[in-house]
Amino acid sequence: MSAPRNVIDVSDMPHHTFDVGEPVWWGNWGLLAIETTMFGILVATYFYLRQNYQLWPPPLTSSPQPFDSLPDLTAATANVFVLLLSCVPMILADRAARRGDRRTVQIALVLCLAFGVAAMVLRGYEFRAVKFRWDANAYGSIVWFTLGMHAAHLLTVTLEAFLLTLWVFLRKFDMKHRVDITVVAVYWYWVAAVWLPLYAMLYFVPRFG
């Protein structure tokens, strides 16, 4: 006869919880660690290419006179403010989800969506502000790729917020999706934060680097 086994009773544990007790929270942070490393590689590539050029960006000429090849600051700078301001309603949604305040979550997520759409529209203008096609030279390629990768994350987090917005308006405001809102909030903060060093690199290194 086999010896009795010690069994831990976990029947009273919650199915979902906030932050470190939730597996999806750890998964989200793992994803962000990978994506941060990816952007680090892009930054390293940018500066590697920079050292190979005497002038950065390379001169862009139009017969008969050359014109300024520096990227325009207007749309990119506006996007800094849009992304930073977008964190305010997301913080409100994050906190409201934790206390179960459905109405505040609804309003805050709608505001986040508006900011997300505005940021993506501005990103479209940023591509035009580069003044080089993606295949014009190494400078154009690394700048377009960096803008594009950040735009992909911006689109992804906005779509995730959109799906959660639909849920909180149309379905039950359950614990699982309250946790999902707090997880998406962390992703949203990361998308806004990672743009700050990228903005400095893409728009100020060519001017002062």
Radius of gyration: 22 Å
Strands, total number: 2
Catalogue the unreliable spans: none
Overall structural domain count: 1
Summing up helix and strand content along with how strands pair, one would put the structural category as mainly alpha
Principal-axis shape equals elongated
Q: Biggest sheet, in brief? A: 2 strands, antiparallel
Helix-strand sequence: HEEHHHHH
Which CATH architecture would you pick? Up-down Bundle
User: For this structure, what is the CATH homologous superfamily?
Assistant: Cytochrome c oxidase, subunit III, four-helix bundle
Q: What topology, given as strand order, has the largest sheet?
A: 1-2
Work out the oligomeric state of the chains in this entry: single chain
Count of alpha and pi helical runs: 6
Percentage of β-strand residues: under 5%
- Which CATH class? Mainly Alpha
Task: Give the integer mean of the pLDDT values.
Answer: 87
According to CATH, what is the topology?
Answer: Four Helix Bundle (Hemerythrin (Met), subunit A)
N-C termini distance: 77 Å
